[in-house]
Hints:
The protein is mainly alpha-helical. It has helices at about 30-40, 60-110, 115-140, 145-150, 160-165; strands at about 5, 50-55, 155-160.
Amino acid sequence: xxxxxxxxxxxxxxxxxxxxxxxxxxxxxxxxxxxxxxxxxxxxxxxxxxxxxxxxxxxxxxxxxxxxxxxxxxxxxxxxxxxxxxxxxxxxxxxxxxxxxxxxxxxxxxxxxxxxxxxxxxxxxxxxxxxxxxxxxxxxxxxxxxxxxxxxxxxxxxxxxxxxxx
Length: 166
């Protein structure tokens, strides 16, 4: 079974070293986030996340708090990225439409008022720039991977480290 297997010395490895609050409030370690992202690249369709902890350090009630905190963090970050992607798409559409409307206006002006031809030449570049900038913003959202959404969808489990040692 494909799984993301992360070895821990204790539950504290999941959280920032500088945060001493309770598990349900602590900041998640950036090292853990980077490791999970790297593992997701290696295992694109995992079925679950398993954290291994030495048997003598496991505390079931803490595991529930830690898992709940991680799930909440992943959901929060997934929503933040979803909003960023949506905003970028909306900006892309707006820029594209503004550029295209300016271009159409310039074409109409050129056909009906020939005295404004120098204005046409001057304003052609900004209209194309806005249109292509908008198109670029739209295309950039296609490749944006919301790996937090993938992490939020995976069950989080804890296991004895001894079960996975080779």
